[in-house]
Amino acid sequence: MPIAVLHVSATGVGGATAACVVLRSFDASESLEERTVTVRTVATRGSGRSFERELSLLRAVLGAVESEIQVAVIGGYVWLDGTTRPGLGAHLYQALGESISVLGIADARCDAGKPEALEVRRGRGSRPVFVTSVGFPPPVVGKLVGAMHGRGRIPWALARAAALGRGRERPRRFARPAAEAHPKTPRRLPSYARIDHRLDAGDHRYLELLPEVAASPALQRISPDPRVRQRLVERAVVQIRGRRGYAFVDVEAPCIVLSESYYASGAHLDLYLDLLHELTHLRQLAEGFDLWDERFEYVDRPTEVEGYAVAIEEGRRLGMTEDDVFRHLSNPWMTEADVRRLIGHIDTYLGGGALPNLALAHRVVRRKAWRPW
């Protein structure tokens, strides 16, 4: 899940440099890729359009990166006043077709518009950094910024990008590009795991996407009761919509939401496993569980551990390596430490142990309906 950490710096009269430091995860301590793009003369800023210079440079440096970026972190603001007045981060998000999540880390409070920024204190200092974002579940943003490598207020990667942009450092050269390795999984999946990719956006029966899923051995893990399994796959609805994200359960519909971009370009095995994961959530929802229970960290939430366990057990059965498992579990709101903790929970559960926090999760409090994408 490559993350692009971006910074734009002025260089001489009218010039500017955009720098990009690519990380494997938020808590990574070294870069996978580093790039800079310099423009010697930049068009004069127009009134109300001061973001255009920085935006064009950010897009240029992202275009020079070989990794498939899923998250961008910028030095500055995503929003200037909550979620209505866009800052540089929101303009970048829109310019990229809302295809990636964007997080902004600002060194100083923005007086214009009085943004509703999250204050995050890092290191030993008492001064916070100011964080705004788009495309992230709200509860995880502060944790991700706090987990970024570096002892100071400003995360190491952002300070590195600023140093590259100002010419104080030179980009490191890497022997190989930082692109994700292709998973060593079967070239041809069994028929029950094959996704029908001919569907249009809109509502579809689960069995339209996975016509032969009833033969999947993974359904036994979702429920040992054949009547429950049949009811789940026959009644489940998948809504293909939106341009960003992956998949989640809309608890108000209820239905599985699958993003159009992920449906069109996601790896077939990942799509199959994610649809099993979300089908597990539909069963949990029918049993009264809160799928967005904020009493627990994401990786300690029993509903998530069970959903991922169903997927990973099936993935391993189909030949996934442990590197493939780590890649599948990684996402924009989890650090590498989070993924390792999640794998520990999964292996405990699949080995016959209990799901974490299960007893407390049965005591449902006021339910919230998040729509992360």
Notes on the protein architecture:
The protein contains 13 helices and eleven strands. It has helices spanning 51-63, 88-95, 141-147, 156-165, 206-209, 218-222, 226-235, 260-265, 268-286, 302-317, 322-329, 336-350, 358-361; strands at 3-10, 16-23, 33-39, 71-75, 101-106, 118-120, 129-134, 202-205, 237-240, 247-250, 255-258. It is elongated. Mean pLDDT is 88; it is low at 177-185.
Number of helices: 13
Order of helices and strands: EEEHEHEEEHHEHHHEEEHHHHHH
Distance between the termini: 17 Å
Helix-residue proportion? 25-40%
Unreliable spans: 177-185
Strand-residue fraction? 15-25%
Roughly how many Å is the radius of gyration? Answer: 22 Å
Which terms would index this structure?
alpha/beta; 4-stranded mixed β-sheet; 7-stranded mixed β-sheet; elongated; 373 residues
Task: Please sum up the structure shown.
With 373 residues, this protein is α/β, with parallel strands linked by helices. The protein has helices spanning 51-63, 88-95, 141-147, 156-165, 206-209, 218-222, 226-235, 260-265, 268-286, 302-317, 322-329, 336-350, 358-361; strands at residues 3-10, 16-23, 33-39, 71-75, 101-106, 118-120, 129-134, 202-205, 237-240, 247-250, 255-258.
